[in-house]
Specification:
11% strand; single chain; 15 helices; alpha/beta; 43% helix; 9 strands
């Protein structure tokens, strides 16, 4: 992907790297996969970011007021003033449905969830699943299909929705538990942040598992994190909002967020805690900590959630989730079924119709310790 972007930026002067340029032994001794000079936003990154942030700035006061009203109307922040925030387009609506069904399986309420949708059709589908949705054209020009691979155009554009969604809820006066669509709940994580988390800590982050230099020192995963509402976290969200040029340059929400996080920690005292990978596991645990993963599957190690990151795309996500018995949708509720549904007022794609009743790790397939998929991504 890095080389494809280099070639696109300057096709006449592009020179392919040597065959061993990205060999594992070579990467181990490089400070960054992306050299620092290539993390500098320039040219079209600056122009695109200026257009996006300028348009959003015009709409922001109205959007904050609408989001605040939506949260109040649906009573989404009654639990510790916290709203669970997600972002989706129609390309990941089945993952959102699977999350909703995981909550049904675990008997966990979804009354605190607000899903920011990239298009009206996605918003209607989300509401059919029993989750509160918010869509407005003022959120920006967003793709309606899933990313084909990590870092592609749709992937990067959806990062903008993730940034604005978190900012709007914090600006409306609420704490945020943000999560990607490929997270499933095994227990209610709001219990942890209400009763076990240190109230003096501003932010909690899932451990990504990657130990590459560009994610130092916290190695924060940006697909599951908690921001306690205060002046420091609101400033951090505001600063990230103004860093869309960085996201475009590095093609990674995670990389740009960590840069903004470090800056806010160093200059303004934002406090950070990293969640333990045994209780908040993710794809790195699935791929590289098989004994721990087996304990989680056997319920010897209780976990709150599982995040199916560390994948090359949605096809692999579904294979891995089904492999573990964390796919809670009936076969009739596949992505195409949602795509072809136009009238969600009369549909069989609601949560009771789509969710099977089996518990996590037992349905529909048993956990297989070794799974061979050609496109498996090692980060």
């Amino acid at each position: 992907l890095i080389e494809a972007e280099r070639q696109k930026a300057n096709p006449k002067r592009y020179v392919p790297p040597p065959p061993d340029w990205y060999a594992e032994e070579r990467l181990e001794h490089r400070a960054l996969v992306l050299p620092q000079a290539e993390t500098l936003p320039k040219g079209r990154n600056l122009k695109e970011a200026l257009v996006a942030t300028g348009a959003f700035a015009t709409e922001a006061p109205r959007l904050v007021a609408e989001v605040r009203a939506r949260i109040r109307e649906r009573r989404l922040a009654t639990r510790n003033n916290t709203v669970v925030v997600m972002a989706t387009n129609f390309g990941t609506i089945d993952l959102v449905a699977n999350f909703a069904c995981s909550c049904r399986s675990a008997r966990v309420p979804t009354a605190s969830v607000l899903v920011f949708a990239a298009d009206p059709h996605s918003a209607r589908a989300v509401e059919t699943l029993g989750l509160a949705a918010y869509y407005d054209a003022g959120l920006g020009d967003l793709p309606d299909q899933a990313a084909k691979t990590y870092g592609d155009f749709a992937f990067v554009r959806m990062m903008w929705l993730k940034v604005t969604a978190v900012y709007l809820v914090l600006a409306a006066g609420h704490s945020v538990l943000f999560q990607d669509a490929d997270v499933v709940w095994l227990r209610n994580p709001l219990d942890f942040f209400a009763h076990q988390a240190d109230p003096a800590v501003d932010s909690y982050w899932m451990d990504d598992g990657a130990r590459s230099a560009r994610y130092t020192p916290f190695y924060s995963n940006t697909g599951f994190y908690f921001l306690r509402h205060n002046d420091r976290t609101l400033f951090f969200a505001h600063r990230l909002l103004l860093s869309y040029d960085n996201i475009l340059a590095v093609r990674s929400h995670q990389h740009a967020l960590i840069m903004a996080l470090l800056d806010t920690v160093a200059k303004y005292g934002l406090t950070v805690n990293v969640l333990h990978h045994a209780t908040f596991p993710q794809g790195q645990v699935f791929h590289h900590k098989k004994s721990l993963m087996q304990q989680i599957v056997d319920r010897q190690q209780p976990a709150f959630v599982f995040h199916m990151c560390w994948t090359a795309g949605r096809v692999d996500k579904l294979k891995y989730l089904k492999n573990m018995g964390l796919w809670f949708l009936k076969p009739s509720c596949h992505l195409d079924a949602f795509t072809h549904q136009r009238d969600f007022a009369n549909t069989s794609l609601d949560r009771p119709a789509c969710c099977h009743n089996l518990p996590a790790f037992f349905a529909p397939n048993p956990y297989v310790e070794q799974l061979s998929i050609a496109s498996k991504l090692r980060r």
